[in-house]
Design a protein that fits this description.
Strand order of the largest sheet: 4-3-2-1-5
CATH architecture: 2-Layer Sandwich
CATH topology: S16 Ribosomal Protein, Chain: A
CATH superfamily: Ribosomal protein S16
Helix content: 25-40%
Oligomer: single chain
Strand content: 25-35%
Number of domains: 1
Largest sheet: 5 strands, mixed
C-alpha cells in the first residue's frame, strides 16, 4: 500500500518536512517513490504538487493523519476522503446523540 507521509529533514530543532509517497513498509526517512511537497511548521509554509497528490490519491494512496490535515488546510481533500478521516470514536458519539 502506498502512503502519503512526512519525511523529516533539516538541522536539530529546526525540522522541516517533505510530503512524500512511500511504500507503507519503508522507513520514515527512506527513499520515497515521489516527493510531492514541502511543509515547514516553524513558518507554517506549505508547498504542494496538487496534480501529483491528486494522482496518488486516485491510485489509492492513503495519507497519514498529519498529511490529511495539511491537505484539508489547502482544500485538497473533500467528499468521501474527508468523511473517511473522521475517527471512529467521534462516529460512535454522534450515533449515541
Amino acid at each position: 500500500m502506498i502512503k502519503l507521509r512526512l519525511k523529516r529533514f533539516g538541522k536539530k530543532r529546526e525540522a522541516s518536512y517533505r510530503v512524500v509517497a512511500v511504500n507503507s513498509t519503508s522507513r520514515r526517512d527512506g527513499r520515497p517513490l515521489e516527493e510531492l511537497g514541502f511543509y515547514n511548521p516553524r513558518t507554517d509554509e506549505i508547498r504542494l504538487d496538487v496534480e501529483g497528490i491528486q494522482r496518488r490519491l486516485s491510485q489509492g494512496a492513503q495519507p497519514t493523519d498529519t498529511v490529511r490535515d495539511l491537505l484539508r488546510k489547502q482544500h485538497l481533500l473533500g467528499g468521501q476522503q474527508a468523511e473517511q478521516a473522521v475517527p471512529a470514536a467521534s462516529v460512535t458519539e454522534q450515533a449515541e446523540a
